[in-house]
Amino acid sequence: MYLVEGNMGVGKSTFLKLIDQHLPEVKILTEPVDNWMTQIHGQSLLDNFYKNPKRWAYTLETLAMTHRVRDHVREQEKNEPNLIMERSVYSGHYCFASNDLESGYFTNVEWVIYNKWADYLVHQKCKAPNGFIYLKADPEVCLKRVKKRNRNCEKTVPLSYIKQIEKWHDNFLINKENVSDKIKNTPVLVLDCNQDFLENPENMQKHVFKIKLFLEQTQNPKHDSIMPKALQYTKEASL
Known about the structure:
Helices cover 55% and strands 11% of the residues. Helix 4 runs antiparallel to helix 5. It is globular. By secondary structure, the protein is α/β, with parallel strands linked by helices. The two termini are 28 Å apart. It has a five-stranded parallel beta sheet. A two-stranded antiparallel ribbon has the order 3-4. A hairpin with a 2-residue loop joins strand 3 (39-40) and strand 4 (43-44). It has helices at 12-22, 34-37, 45-51, 53-78, 89-102, 108-125, 139-149, 159-173, 181-184, 201-218, 223-226, and strands at 2-6, 27-29, 39-40, 43-44, 83-86, 131-136, 188-192. The protein has a single domain (2-226), classed as Rossmann fold.
């Protein structure tokens, strides 16, 4: 199992659709974002969060965690080595929930309760993936793409929020700050996604090659000795 992570607007869903076309041997599972965008009792939790984060952060992140844990556990039991899932229990915990705490959207009591669930569901029930694939783009680029896809609930998302989420992704995937020992040594492939990959087939082919190589290396029984550190492709390395 591999997990694709990245900021909102970086293009994860589009990227995975293209990977599905280029690598037929890979199984793709996209993020169940409709679960928190769809109306529940006449309300969209994601829309509610953006309008009133202090009221809805705990509700939204708890719902997201339960859905992601369910999907993670279901797929890990199938033991399909070439499965790539969009987003994960880990970014939900280390990026979005952590940002909510720092921003003051969680109360102390809510944070304690949330972590009790995370300790049990995320850290005990979910096995570490074979690797993370981190799609990285500048926050300004992500914001342009958010505006282009034009979701109603995202119309008021500010650049400052996207910058905060980028910081948490970097801490989680590149710096490995305060992450569980279970995933601290999990390899990470970082792809520079500032350039459009939908309208640039040559650029997408480069990403496909790197992902194929990443899958081969991380599935080698001796990959720990081959890749003692996260395999990263920065802007310079991707040129």
